[in-house]
Amino acid sequence: MANYQWKHAEELQQTAQSMVAHHKGILAADESNNTATKRLQEVGIESSEESRRKYRQLLFTAPDIENYISGVILYDETIRQSDDNGKPFPELLKSRGIIPGIKVDTGAKPLAGSPDEKVTEGLDGLRERLAEYYNMGARFSKWRAVITVGEGMPTQQCMEANAHALARYSALCQENGLVPIVEPEVLINGSHDIDTCEEITEENLRTVFNELYRHNVMLEGTVLKTSMVISGLDAKNRAGIEEVADRSVQTLERVVPPALGGVVFLSGGQGDVEATQHLDVMNKKYKNRVPWRLTFSYARALQNPALGTWGSDMANTEEAQKAFAFRAKLNSLASEGEYSEDMESKAA
Q1: How many domains does the chain have?
Q2: Which are the catalytic amino acids?
Q3: Is this structure's pTM higher than 0.85?
Q4: What range does the domain containing 229 cover?
C-alpha cells in the first residue's frame, strides 16, 4: 500500500472498534422509502413520512437497547427527522451512547452489458454528501453491493464493478472521517448449494479487498458487512447451522486481512431465530481464534417481531419495543457465543 496517512486515522479506528464492541451489534434501519412502505403495508400500516418517523422512533427509544446496539444505520429521510420532543434522531441516538450511521448508496441498478446483474450507484456528489452527514452527526456509513447467483452469474465484470465502487466509496468516507461499512452481499435467492455460495463468496471478498488495497483504504477504520456462506433459499438440501457457521468463518479466514476493524453479518432473508443461531455457533467455536469481532448488523431479523407487534393501529408501542429489545438482547448474547435456543421462550 502507498504510504498514505489518513488525517482521521485515530478517530476512524476508535469508531470502528466501538461499532463492534463486545455484546453489541448494529441495527440496520436504513430501508429506502419504497422498502419501508412495503414493510409497513405488510402489517396494515399506511406508509407516510410521519408513520415512518414514528416507527423509527419506536426502535430508537426502546428501553435498554444501548446495552445491545452499538450503532444504527439511518436513511437520508430518517437522519433529518426528530423525535416527538424535537430532538434530531442522530442526537437522540448519541445521547444513548449509540453511534449514528448513514446509508449513502443510491441503489443497485442493472449492470450495462449484463442486465441480469446489478451495480450499485451513488458516487456522484458523494464527497459533499459525506461532509454534510458528518456535520449532522453520522460517524459511519454503508454501501451495499448485490451479487446474484445463477446460470453464468456472477460474472467477473459484476464483481469487479461493484468492488471498484465499494473501494472508491470507502476512500471518500475515510477522507471525511466516516468509517465505511463495506457490504458485498451474495444474495440468498436461488437454488444453489452451499459449495457454490462458498466459492462465490470467497472470490467476491478477494476481489473487494484487492480493490480496497489499491485505493489506500485503511482497514483498521473499515468494517465488513458480509452475507453468510449459506445454501440458496430454494436449494433441495439446505446446509445446517453448524455447517453454515463453519464455512462462513473459514471463508473469512482465507481472505479477510487481520487488520480489518471488524466483521458484521447481515441476515439476508434468514429467519429471525436462524440468523441468531448461526451467529452464536460462529462465536462459540471461533471467537477466540479469529482476529476480528464477529457480530451482527441485522434489519428484518431484529425488526420483524416489533413491526408485527406494533399493529395496524400503531398503538402497541410498549410491547413492540419489548419485542425489539428482546431480539437485540438475544443477538447480543449470540455475538459472544452465549445464546441458547431455550431463551427464545423466555420473557424479555
Answers
A1: 1
A2: 183, 225
A3: yes
A4: 9-337
